[in-house]
Every structure is written in C-alpha cells, then in structure tokens.
Fold this protein.
Amino acid sequence: MTVAAVLAYAVAGLFGAGCNGGESADPKPGASPSGVASPTSASPGTTLASPATPGATLPGYSRDKRTGVAAVDTVVDALLSGQADRIRPLLQFYAVPCRAPATGIPAPPACPPGAADGTKVDVFPNASCPEGRYVTRDGIDAFLREIATASSLPFAVYRQEPAPPAGSEFPRGDYAIVLTTPRPPTNASFPPYSVSTVQVEGGRIFSGAIACPHETAATVLGNRVASAFLLPPP
C-alpha cells in the first residue's frame, strides 16, 4: 500500500466528502454514489470458484460461523455463497472522473471509448496490494473472484472507526470482514491461501482489499485489541 502523501492526489482529486449510514457520501463535491451494480460479465448464478491446494490447511472458522450482527452477517452470507449476483447488489460504487491517460497512485479510471477526459465513471475502491486502484463495473466480477469464492472461510470480523474517502486512502466501514481463500502454490514461502478484507457499513460493502501474497491472516490483523473483535481469529 502507498503512503498517505503519495495518495494525496487520489484523496483530494477523486474523493471529497464523507459517508453516512449505509449510503456513502459523494466521493467528490457534486458527485453521487452510483448505487447498486447491475450484472456484467457473469451470468446470474455464476459461482466464483477457487481451486483448492491439495493438502493445504485453510485457517478460519467453519463456513456457517456468523457474528450475530445482521448488517455484517448479510455480507458474510453473500461473500461465502460464491455467487456474484448475490454480492454485486451490496457493492457501493462511486462516480469519479476518468482520466486520459489514466496515471496516478492510485490510478484513476481510464476513460471509456468516446468519453471525454473528466467524464464520471462508476468505480469500486480496490485497496489491494501493492497499491490501491479503482474497479469499473465492467471489471467487477474478476475482482469479486479474488475477494471471495465458494471455498473461502471467515477468519475474523472487527469493529473500527469508519472513515470517509477524504480521511483515508479509500472509504472504511464500521466493520471489517477478513476472509481466507485457497489458492494454487506460487512460492514455497507464501501461505497457500489469500487474505481479503471487506469494509462494511449498514449492510453495504464500501471497499475491498487482497493482501500481498506473502501475508498471512495473522499478519493482516496486526495487533488489534481483543475488544475490537466481533469474531476473533480462531
């Protein structure tokens, strides 16, 4: 992830206001959250499958483990279903200006064919390693396949102070859901699973992130105090 100073462009130029309840405030003055995503590249019922690594142990709880907080468990249910059409309606898209060329950290969305520089494009914040970026509606299903699949497990859920786009690289919800997902081995020193974190507020997903390949679920959580957890690490 990049340092705050480097991300000043993204925060000041693409996002400009806060979040309230289940609806995010304008990412830029005068802009509006674009609302619910419509199905794109995957057809209804598409399962976001992930190949398991033979013999690998996936850290996490059983797939039926929940927190008892409805706004969180609704999101967990959708993520662990592996169904793209169940996850998409929970995503909070933002309308931000496209750029041609699309340069910067994080890079703004590229302008669609025929669109002028500065045309607003619906995006979902992706804070994944190594640096944040924006996912358009056309690319959202590919991103969802990285965030969670039918093989993912819940690892932890914790409370945090929500932060609007103006106060952090990307919007942060009042809860964070941490999942583990099996992946094929790519390096003997890396864990045989990926770790994703989904930012949730009011039953909606404000942003998502996949950790760097070398990170374990424990290192992603860091030194969070026990009182912050709705679902502590197993």
Remarks:
- Residues 66 and 73 are 6 Å apart (CA to CA).
- The first helix runs from residue 8 to 14.
- Residues 8-37+47-231 form one domain.
